[in-house]
Amino acid sequence: MQAEWSVAQEPMPHWLENLEDQASAARLELEREQSEARLAELESLLEELPGIFERKFHQRLEPVLDRQQLLIDENERLRALVERLMPQPGEVRLRFPDRRPPQALGSAEQAPLPPLLRLIRGGRRPDGEQLPRGGWEDPTHR
Question: How far apart are CA 131 and CA 119, in angstroms?
Answer without folding.
Answer: 8
